[in-house]
Each structure stands twice: as C-alpha cells, then as structure tokens.
Design brief:
alpha/beta; 3-stranded parallel sheet
Length: 77
C-alpha cells in the first residue's frame, strides 16, 4: 500500500490517520510505502512541542519504520 501525506503535524491530525492506516496494514502483513511531501516532512522533526497526552508524530513514524514501512521524504520538488 502506498500513502502520500502532504500536511504538517500542526495543520490537521492527518498524520495520526496516516499512522493508524499504515500500522493496521503492516500488522496484517502488507507492505507500506509512505511518501511525505511538502509540509509532511515536518512530521519527522523530533524537537516539536505537543500537549503531553498527544504522541509526537516522529515517535509514531519511528515505530512504523521499525515495523517495516519504507518512507520517501520530499520537501519540495
């Protein structure tokens, strides 16, 4: 499955939807390829400030990569 994410973590919660879809697919044995485009590359920044009860996008993305997700990050093309 290929997923393209284009929004940063502060605009919407699309990174969370992306992470849930990708994790479900990986857990069922599917391959997942992620294409992070434009502002989506900011989901991978580890020095973000979020409320304490909200997981940082970078932590969600690390777990997906550990599970086997392949990622491409393109800030501008």
């Amino acid at each position: 499955m290929a997923i393209m994410l284009t929004e940063g973590p502060w605009q919407t919660e699309n990174y969370e939807i992306f992470a849930c879809l990708a994790e479900a697919a990986l857990d069922k044995g599917h391959e997942v390829e992620a294409f992070w485009y434009i502002d989506a590359v900011y989901n991978g920044i580890k020095h973000q400030k979020f409320p304490e009860d909200v997981p940082l996008p970078v932590e969600r993305m690390k777990k997906l990569i550990e599970k086997g997700q392949r990622s491409w990050l393109v800030g501008f093309a």
